Amino acid sequence: GVTLEQTPLLVDERRNELNMIFQFDVVSIDRQGWRWKPWTWPEVKAIYTRYDKALDVHSWNTVFLTNHDNTRVVSRFGDDTPQYRVPSAKALATMLLTLKGTPFVYQGDELGMTNYPFTKIEEFDDIQVKNAWKAEVLTKQVGIVDYIAHLRKTSRDHARTPMQWDESPNGGFTTAAKAWLPLNPNYKEINAKQALADQNSIYYYFKKMIELRKRTPALIYGDYKDLDPQNPTVFAYTRSLGADKYLVVLNLSKNDLAYTLPEGLKAGQLALSNLNGKEENVPVVNLKGWEARIYQL
Hints:
CATH topology of the largest domain: TIM Barrel
Structural class: alpha+beta
Strand content: 15-25%
Distance between the termini: 39 Å
Largest sheet: 5 strands, antiparallel
Number of domains: 3
Number of strands: 11
Radius of gyration: 20 Å
Order of helices and strands: HEEHEHHEHHHHHEEEEEEE
């Protein structure tokens, strides 16, 4: 790997070499090896600000919240309980598609697929998990319960369970007797067929967000500014390109709140909300748990 400071040596467009680079700071924020560690939203926001300052207009970043080596987005950064799974997945989609850089969506995140409820070592396939089991658990350096508890938050097998296409056996992934990893037990409720039948699904929200981003150059190329970096639950930032300026306000918690916009800003014209917000041209926005809004200023 390379440092952030070295990145322009690879992706600066004037060098005619690479187009973009993956930085893993965000997706490694909550883990140390197989162990889970606490994290905060200000820490995440600081990473994006650091990226923005280190990469000028000639270098291009990527934005991703998971991949095949990480856990499911909504279980990790959102809230995968039945009440908040959909709104938190939509809020995270809003963040993913409005930050500066090329966004990458991992398969199943457009459905809000969740972590698998692992309970025993035999359910894992990951060679790293198996090797650590032999090296640390079987030698009694780490307890079984503690090890499995961490893996339920960190194992990359969460992102490797079969794609959930429909409610048929094996989720429509295979006609074999069983898939290479077990299906998440919630596949009958969370699957592509269900998402396509629900106009308010996470899938269709992703589609709306992608369409908004595509027709809004400021959300692609605009300057990025974090307005409230130390706020523990609200992520508020602007994207500006020439005379066009957009405000993104994300309530990254389950608690409803009244949020006073920083720097004397008013919300402006609402471009999109994941929870049908209606407020416009106000200095204080009343956000429901996991509500996301995009305003044109």
